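FW: tagging you since you asked about this chain on Friday. Here's the raw sequence from the shared folder, copied in full. Didn't touch anything.
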Amino acid sequence: MQKNSDRSKVLNELFKVSKMGMEASEIVLTRTHEKELSNRIKRQDEGYINLMEKTRALLEVSSEQPVGVSKRLQNMLRSAVKANTFFRHDPQHIAELMVRGSTMGIVNITKTMNHTPDCDPKVRKIAEDYINAEKCGIDKMKAFL
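HL: got it, structure written out here
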């Protein structure tokens, strides 16, 4: 039973971080005018959307719905991103925000994985792939800092 519970916890956390990453990157995209950076953020956004769909499908196999992100947290995220990009939307600042967001996602998934030792290996692999993709995204954002 613990294994299913751990599986759900990791999948729900993956859904949350990908949803928040998608929301933040889509707001940032409207304020990004540098073409190469914009393309990089679009690719990250596509990764978040794909991960959301994958985790939703895996939860539905177990007759579960993703827990999602609270409206309050979504509103806080939107407000913070908009406020952080209102006056400053130069490539360096945008890249820094993307790095910070990716780092928060890595931390959240790592904490969840550390507290769910009996998680399904397939789900653990998806989480590890997410972490590796975010690290790669961070490395690519460094060029704009």
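FW: Residues 7 and 122 are 9 Å apart (CA to CA).
HL: agreed, and DSSP finds five helices and no strands in the chain.
FW: great, closing this out.
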